[in-house]
């Protein structure tokens, strides 16, 4: 049952959120030293980080995906590791393995690159399913078992996976159940002409590129995550989120009978949870102590686009999943 929040409680919560979210501006300024444009990517990265989720980025090479998460790790003072996914990659290459020492006749644990706060899984769709599943199990459980011993991963923990939408040779598409583990899937576009001009000038300049300084601590991030959970979500907004997700399963109930043969499967309950948490994190970034419908709409595409399946009819008609989501958002009544 939704807890009733008085005006006084809301005011005190607003003051707390404004105080706790002060670092967001510093973080954006610091990242802006190295990353030109891509505001959407940086914003969604922070949403995933604050909502304790993971993020899948889809875009052509050269859009600063690696630079973004590396810079974010430096600004947050956390460990960063990058794994280049290839067809010959093994789960042990990510998780780690046991190594036998003939000298001592004992096994020792060699931890893999997953033991970092921020992990970049570059071109995740280039590795076979057993490698993808090893990574995604860690994302869900936040722990690794090696040689019968379980190791908890340090918080904050964030996986950013990338995939190239153009090149499909030698790739293994992520199964639907594994895609569902990602809170957000963000599709990146090219920078504007002016942004690209600034990028070129920055890269060819004789000046030394500015270094990213730490502006927030891991402890502050964990505290911010706790504050995100406290952001007020009204019962009407909760119902709005559920209606959006439910409309992807039963479109006829929301005045969209023509969508019934276009959607092969709708979003899971994890989509509702992700949309609610992401909306809270988005409100926190906007330094608000409560969620409004615009927060939900701003993130609906990123939460749903990898959770909806289009039928053959929809693909034959040239429809995109974004078109379906937009239709759902227009059909569901806004509170």
Précis, in short:
The protein has helices at residues 7-20, 23-31, 39-50, 65-76, 91-95, 129-141, 176-179, 193-204, 218-230, 235-247, 269-285, 293-304, 312-316, 321-331, and strands at residues 55-58, 80-84, 96-101, 106-111, 118-122, 143-146, 149-152, 158-163, 184-187, 263-265, 309-310.
Structural notes for this entry:
By secondary structure, the chain is α/β, with parallel strands linked by helices. It folds into two domains: 174 residues, Rossmann fold; 101 residues, Helicase, Ruva Protein, domain 3 (Orthogonal Bundle). Helix content is 45%, strand content 15%. The chain is built from 14 helices and eleven strands. The radius of gyration is 21 Å and the shape is globular. The two termini are 18 Å apart. The model has no long low-confidence stretch (mean pLDDT 88).
Secondary-structure map:
Layout: H1 7-20, H2 23-31, H3 39-50, E1 55-58, H4 65-76, E2 80-84, H5 91-95, E3 96-101, E4 106-111, E5 118-122, H6 129-141, E6 143-146, E7 149-152, E8 158-163, H7 176-179, E9 184-187, H8 193-204, H9 218-230, H10 235-247, E10 263-265, H11 269-285, H12 293-304, E11 309-310, H13 312-316, H14 321-331
Parallel strand pairs: 1-8, 1-9, 2-5, 5-8
Antiparallel strand pairs: 3-4, 6-7, 10-11
Helix pairs in contact: 1-9, 3-11, 9-11, 10-11, 10-12, 11-12, 12-14
């Amino acid at each position: 049952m939704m807890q009733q929040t008085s005006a006084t409680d809301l005011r005190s919560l607003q003051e707390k959120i404004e105080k706790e979210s002060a670092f967001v501006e510093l973080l954006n300024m610091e990242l802006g030293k190295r990353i030109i444009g891509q505001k959407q990517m940086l914003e969604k990265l922070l949403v995933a980080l604050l909502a304790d989720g993971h993020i899948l980025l889809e875009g052509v090479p050269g859009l600063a995906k690696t630079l973004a998460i590396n810079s974010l790790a430096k600004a947050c003072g956390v460990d960063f590791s990058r794994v280049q996914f290839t067809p010959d990659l093994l789960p042990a290459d990510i998780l780690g393995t046991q190594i036998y020492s003939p000298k001592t006749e004992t096994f020792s644990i060699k931890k893999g690159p997953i033991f970092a706060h921020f992990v970049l899984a570059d071109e995740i769709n280039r590795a076979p399913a057993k490698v993808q599943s090893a990574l995604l199990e860690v994302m869900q459980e936040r722990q690794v078992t090696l040689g019968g011993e379980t190791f908890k991963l340090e918080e904050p923990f964030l996986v950013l996976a990338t995939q190239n939408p153009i090149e499909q040779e030698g790739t293994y598409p992520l199964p639907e159940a594994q895609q569902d583990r990602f809170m957000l899937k963000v599709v990146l576009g090219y920078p504007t002409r002016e942004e690209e001009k600034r990028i070129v000038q920055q890269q060819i300049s004789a000046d030394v590129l500015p270094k990213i300084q730490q502006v927030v601590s891991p402890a502050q991030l964990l505290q911010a995550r706790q504050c995100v959970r406290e952001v007020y979500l009204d019962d009407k907004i909760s119902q709005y989120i559920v209606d959006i997700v439910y409309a992807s399963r039963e479109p006829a109930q929301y005045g969209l009978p023509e969508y019934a043969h276009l959607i092969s499967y709708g979003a899971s309950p994890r989509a509702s949870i992700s949309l609610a948490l992401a909306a809270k994190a988005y409100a926190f970034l906007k330094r608000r102590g409560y969620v409004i419908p615009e927060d939900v709409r701003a993130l609906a595409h990123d939460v749903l686009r990898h959770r909806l399946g289009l039928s053959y009819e929809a693909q034959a008609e040239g429809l995109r999943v974004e078109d379906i989501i937009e239709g759902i958002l227009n059909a569901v009544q806004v509170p």
